[in-house]
Amino acid sequence: MKRAVPMSLVLGLAACGGEAGGGAGKGPGAVAAEACRAAAEARLDGKLYQLDLAALAASMREASNGEKFLTAPIVIEPGLTSETRQIVECTVRFTGERADVVGFVFNW
Question: PROSITE patterns attached here (predicted)?
């Protein structure tokens, strides 16, 4: 019976699809946030996470060489004893309507 509670928590978190706060909306910020989300997910090796795409999209600002910089908090393995909180810092370059990640770090 002790396993039922943690498993239901894990399954409930997995059903969240990894993100919190819904989608990023529409427009260039949303496109850039989605590219950054994919970059984060690729680096997390299947771990659960929460990332507010709307906050990430809203944070977009000019960086060097016409690139865009986005940043937002991320919670890795939320609700677990191994939970960590970091900041995603992501730089993208637009080619037409497509955003390519050119820089990415998790900042403690």
Answer: PROKAR_LIPOPROTEIN
pTM (predicted TM-score): 0.78
How is the chain split into domains, by residue range?
A: 28-107
CATH (one of 1.10.287, 3.10.450, 3.30.70, 3.30.1050) for 28-107: 3.10.450
Where is 94: in which H helix or E strand? Answer: strand 84-95
> Hey, which residues does 85 pair with through a beta bridge?
75
Token couple for 35: 């590219």
pLDDT above 70 (res 24): no
Please give the distance of CA 61 from its chain centroid, rounded to a whole number.
17
- Mean pLDDT for the chain? 84
Could you tell me which of 62, 49, 63, 61 has the C-alpha nearest to residue 20? Answer: 49
Residue 92 to residue 38: CA distance in whole angstroms: 12
